Amino acid sequence: MGKQIHELSGPKGLPVFGNIFRLDLPKIHQQIENWADEYGDVYCLDLFKISQLVVTRPSLIQAIANERPHLFKRSGKLDQVIREGGVHGVFNAEGDDWYRYRSVVTKGLDVKHQQAFYPDLVEKVSILYQKWKHDADSGEVTDIQKDLLRFTVDITTLLAFGYDIDTMRKEGGVIQDHLEVIFPTLFKRINSPISWHNYFKTNQDKRFDQAVQEMKKIVDVFISEAQERLQSNPSLKESPRNLLESILVAAEEEQRFSIDEIRGNLMTLLMAGEDTTAHTLTWLIFLLLDKPDAIEMIREEADRVIGEAPFSEVYSQNQQLKYAEAAASESLRFKPVAPILLYEALDDVELEGITISKGQRILTQYRHAALKDIYFSYGKEFIPDRWINRERCPVHDTKAYTPFGSGPRYCPGRNLAYLEIRAIISMLYKNFDVELIEDENVEEVMAFTMMASSLKVKLKNRNYGTDN
After folding, report:
1. What is the pLDDT of residues 185-209, one digit of tens each?
2. How far is it, in rounded angstroms, from Cα 380 to Cα 395?
3. What are the structural domains of the chain?
């Protein structure tokens, strides 16, 4: 018989309340790592009558992911909180709902749709390039994270809805403003042992409710306009141009989706696609600040592949930017934007000598292992080459690297994320030098995703070593 959860070691807490008051939510991912160093890669947290199993061991994380959806599901608390935020889509759905949602979402994000969408991506990259060129010419401080969040909102709304919301050229009253309220509140509610917002509303809760309603109104406008397009142009039903049109066609032909389900999946895609990619790009730029050799490799590749243009204008060029992609993969090893995933056992099971009872809450954190030498050669060194040339770094255990999840619930947006990252990183370093503002203190903050506290820089037009 395996070891019971209560037999595992873990940090000592207070009587009754356990470790609740020790949790620092904005830094909880780092606390998990520090406790794993002390108590091992599987341990227990006592959270006010709840025993939370914590796992940082890659093989056990993989086993849990691979046994979905039969033996494990996402945390029931996570599902409840996300539904309160007006979202029920492919991210938090389980069982038959997930299968229905996944098939349509995956199709809408496939290579064929990405190729067709690439000219729209190029247009948005051009707008961002012009904005950064202005900053470099004028000497203004650039808020990289803010710019990237707006860029990814524009990309996601175009791909998902076929709607150009153009947040990069607007200030205030846009989707990003609402998401900046929604994400931190969701994270706080998911990790709070007691759902205080069900008993009394703070000002933050009231702002959250208002932001959710505004997001629903925006998405409902997208749905209404797409329905009108399909009605007036029936040929679109044969070849939908975006994810929203694909879902509406499926809903009409097969009665597969209600309006609430359509709205929930669109909000899921918007929230997942905007936040994660923007923060991944932000962390990559931050990590490259003191990596001149890696920057030169990105520039050499961009100059060779793209030529005289300031950015990749055709899809085939983007696909050749292998070093930029390797740098992104290495950044995700150091700064994964979703380092924590919450699960719940659907039945009694024993895995790797641990007895897990039905209903057991499980927290997995995979960065702790990804930075260790036993899984990656020179684990604490930033070496993009490890993703291209395995001879330099022979230890390369991808079971310890799961920034896009694993098993049947592997993230369907992975390829789109890399498409955007390659386009932006090659454009940035092909044209600009990046310098951190001297007094800028960049820290990791958990707010649903792991984001940078801020990243403000000075951009300078690239010095090509000539007089021009």
Report:
1. 887 887 776 778 888 889 998 998 8
2. 13
3. 5-461 (1.10.630.10)
